[in-house]
């Protein structure tokens, strides 16, 4: 979680006409300067939202270039929608990553059905494929560039030595020194690049179950592709099955990187950031609560500010956290009480299996277009944003509302083996409370935050 000190000085000022105010440490370069604690407002903080709902600090966003797709990316687009590539002949990438649903699942099933006979259930919720274009390689450390020269195992050793500092809003220097898992694709970061990634679903027996490389290559040679492959790579390569398949995967990756539909940045929030839209009072309150460390504190992990270079925010810090979301009995794999999806430490990635301090950690997903989804979290346990907000608010303060009660005792963090439950994040608000204490957010705060989240849906047409 990346921390920016936020000093929320005004809470309900919007309706009374005063500006919403907050101070973002991220906006000031001196990260190591001592900061005033929350609530100790010694000087007036700049406004987060103006009384009329406008952005007090409009920015010029640096958006990815929009240009015609390369020939390889066009080939990738065809492959993305081609059901023939699957073992069953019935599933394409788009079946699970639907373009009409922000490249997320087209339905409310927690996991999708695949396999060559369409009778195998997936094990995790389908993530959106949008806004992955800036995702860095998986690493453990404060900074990706520095990590490039050392191996993952060395990083793990470093990560163990570093004390897991309390991630507070006011000690940004200590937080920066904290070594945390970050980057990568999939809920557990087990692959780095979009190209490397595509052979996962293509050959995964639970997903497209395409069979062997030879089978896929034969399909690529037949049908409409043969000519495109020949034109792109030369006729001499057509016999090389491995080459054909890896070029196909490369093409799929190029499609996802080049096609603007994967990173449209056409939400109301993007317009607002650029001074071209105003929040309604509800959205404005939601935005402030989303940022307020005493309320949602969502922006601590789901970053919502543009970078200093004008890069639009992706609503993820691309780090991993153990939130302890409840077990989802609707996932067939969960019928086995000994089965546990523990994210970074397995079972689907194996290189960190013994780093038990990471058990239960999953990648922080983007919240762009989250309000269009029908399943939430890595195990798809919730079906509405209202339930997600309840989870954040009541996980610690009213745990019986979130977890099953077994023999009169709340089985908190029931989706993790008991020995790893200590990994669950207890320091970051709104998770810094105890049972019976007042929840961080009121019912209205939560409704307001949901209204704000809806401003992150792409395709905004004004209003
Ligand atoms: C049967 C459903 C299904 C199909 C078909 C499918 N995927 Fe996925 N995809 C998933 C699931 C589930 C995940 C998350 C898996 C995990 O985290 O372990 C995923 C994850 C991904 C990710 C990582 C996203 C992220 O946020 O890190 C990418 C990229 C991706 N798929 C691309 C593809 C491509 C390309 C195809 C076609 C070759 C494809 N998928 C076909 C279900 C599917
Ligand atoms: C400490 C970091 C952290 C904070 C604070 C945080 N989140 Fe998250 N969020 C995560 C992680 C990690 C996940 C994925 C967890 C999982 O699936 O196990 C997640 C998942 C989500 C999802 C599901 C998205 C999807 O595609 O399934 C939503 C919605 C969400 N968060 C909204 C919020 C809101 C609203 C707040 C503030 C009330 C908030 N988050 C605060 C880290 C955080």
Question: Can you characterise this structure?
Answer:
This protein is mainly alpha-helical. The chain has a domain at 71-132 and 190-258: Cytochrome Bc1 Complex, Chain D, domain 2 (Orthogonal Bundle), CATH 1.10.760. It has helices at 13-16, 71-80, 93-96, 144-147, 152-161, 172-177, 194-203, 213-221, 225-233, 241-258, 268-273, 281-291, 385-394, 443-454, and strands at 6-8, 20-24, 47-49, 113-114, 120-121, 139-141, 180-182, 320-321, 362-363, 405-406, 409-410. The strands form 5 sheets. A 3-stranded antiparallel sheet has the order 1-2-3. Strand 10 and strand 11 form a beta hairpin. Bound molecules: heme C (2 copies).
> Helix segment count?
14
Shape: globular
Using only C-alpha atoms, the radius of gyration works out to: 23 Å
Considering the protein shown, what is the CATH homologous superfamily of the domain at 71-132 and 190-258? Cytochrome c-like domain
The CATH class name of the domain at 71-132 and 190-258 reads Mainly Alpha
Order of helix and strand elements from N to C terminus: EHEEHHEEEHHHEHHHHHHEEHEEH
By CATH, the architecture of the domain at 71-132 and 190-258 is named Orthogonal Bundle
Query: Terminal Cα separation, in Å?
Result: 33 Å
**Which band does the percent of strand residues land in?**
5-15%
Helix content: 25-40%
Spatial strand arrangement across the major sheet: 1-2-3
What are the segments in which pLDDT stays under 50 over at least 5 consecutive residues? 3-42, 143-150, 161-177
Mean pLDDT: 84
Bound molecules: heme C
- Find the count of extended strands (DSSP E, 2+ residues): 11
Name the structural class: mainly alpha
CATH topology of the domain at 71-132 and 190-258: Cytochrome Bc1 Complex, Chain D, domain 2
Report the sheet with the most strands, covering strand number, pairing sense and barrel closure.
3 strands, antiparallel
